[in-house]
Design brief:
Strand content: 5-15%
Helix content: 40-55%
CATH superfamily: NAD(P)-binding Rossmann-like Domain
Number of strands: 6
Low-confidence stretches: none
Structural class: alpha/beta
CATH topology: Rossmann fold
CATH class: Alpha Beta
CATH architecture: 3-Layer(aba) Sandwich
Mean pLDDT: 96
Order of helices and strands: HEHEHEHEHEHHE
Strand order of the largest sheet: 3-4-5-6
Bound molecules: NADP nicotinamide-adenine-dinucleotide phosphate
Length: 228
């Protein structure tokens, strides 16, 4: 989804720096952008390491300015019985879904405050706005609820500075995270199909636009009716 949002933003004329841990994935993204004639920069980084996040923001500021927009689309998934939810697994899920968002937000805020403008977009999960039982996904769902609380707290604090913080709550979107059979998953979704990263990107463009300035601390569910 991060890739689709990056491409959509760049196509709309935003100066985009896309980051990720793997060189090959970033090269693939640059190739797609180049084939479509869309200018886009990439940088190898790790959202879970504060120092590397700091460097990525410095790099962005020096090469493309800002940033006025921050899209954080990191968040590992794991499911299994609670007996197999080790402390290491729990911490890894929190680090991937919440701590990495905290680092990015902390780096983005000072510049956004100075410019009195900012759009921050994070990714929760459908149903994550009403905490519910999540058998087999205890840690992932708990982390997403923590992320929403973090997002709303920052939204409240920064509203007077022209900075918005919102979350997209995806249902089942056809991306690398989704490994189970699409047909099996689609049967459980009222729309009878998985969502696409492009559909997510279109919603993201709105929440990242100038026009969405009065929307903050909000969630936008894209789930084809799942969990209604
Ligand atoms: N797909 C779904 O159906 C679904 C449903 C509900 C919620 N979500 C949430 O939506 C968000 C995006 O999901 P997705 O399906 O697009 O995930 P994805 O296909 O697994 O992509 C995640 C991206 O984040 C990068 N990434 C992961 N860890 C990173 C790190 N530590 N530092 C830098 N980059 C990192 C990955 O690149 P590298 O591996 O190269 O670093 C990859 O480009 C996540 O927060 C996920 O929890 C997804």
């Amino acid at each position: 989804m991060g890739r689709a949002v990056a491409l959509a933003l760049a196509r709309e004329g935003a100066r985009v720096l896309a980051t990720g841990r793997h060189r090959d994935t970033l090269a693939e993204l640059r190739a797609i952008a180049q084939a479509r004639g869309i200018p886009l920069r990439t940088l190898q980084s790790d959202a879970e390491k504060r120092e590397r996040v700091r460097k990525a923001f410095r790099y962005a500021a020096s090469k493309i300015g800002g940033p006025d927009l921050l899209v954080h689309a990191v968040g590992d998934f794991w499911e299994g019985p609670i007996s197999r939810l080790t402390g290491e697994r729990w911490e890894a899920l929190v680090r991937s879904n919440v701590t990495s968002a905290l680092y990015a937000i902390q780096e983005a805020l000072p510049g956004m405050r100075r410019r009195r403008y900012g759009r921050i977009l994070l990714f929760g999960v459908a149903g994550g706005d009403v905490p519910r039982a999540a058998p087999r996904a205890h840690a992932y769902r708990a982390a997403k609820v923590a992320l929403l609380t973090l997002a709303r707290s920052v939204a409240h604090e920064e509203a007077a500075n022209g900075i918005t913080v919102n979350l997209i709550l995806p249902g089942v979107i056809r991306t690398g995270t989704v490994t189970r059979s699409s047909a099996l998953l689609a049967r459980r979704i009222p729309a009878r199909r998985l969502g696409t990263p492009q559909e997510v990107a279109r919603a993201a463009l709105f929440l990242l636009s100038h026009d969405s300035g009065y929307i903050t601390g909000s969630t936008l569910t894209l789930s084809g009716g799942l969990l209604l």
